[in-house]
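Chapter summary example.
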Amino acid sequence: MPFYRASEMAESHVAAQPMGRFKGLAGELMKVGFVTYARGKMSRPHYHPNEEQFLFILEGRQWMIVGDEEGLVVAGDLVHIPRGAKHGGVIIDDVRMFTAKSPSGDGRLDQDHHDAEDAEAIVRRLQEKLSEFS
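The structure predicted for these 134 residues follows.
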């Protein structure tokens, strides 16, 4: 079937990011999904050695780190995450985003998820940023 309603898609548990809510689909060459995080939650710093990713922010605000860069992303922003780039973020206001990843692999959004070696240092930096917005 080529048509899907986000409201009718099944929610899945993503073990690597239990603080978020995920709805995803896989095609032959890519996988897509909707990701929702509540204010104050965090996308733990990680990387995908075999996947390239785009995020389109539908609602909310998030302070994101991608590689050596960081900044505030808001509704209407598009974020490119190259294969192997460390990334993560802290949610300033409830966020809903659309994501696309390639290749599709087995279809799971967390299939190629690996914690960043310096994840704890990045988490501390993200928590500092959250306090600046409070």
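To summarize the output: The helical segments are 119-133.
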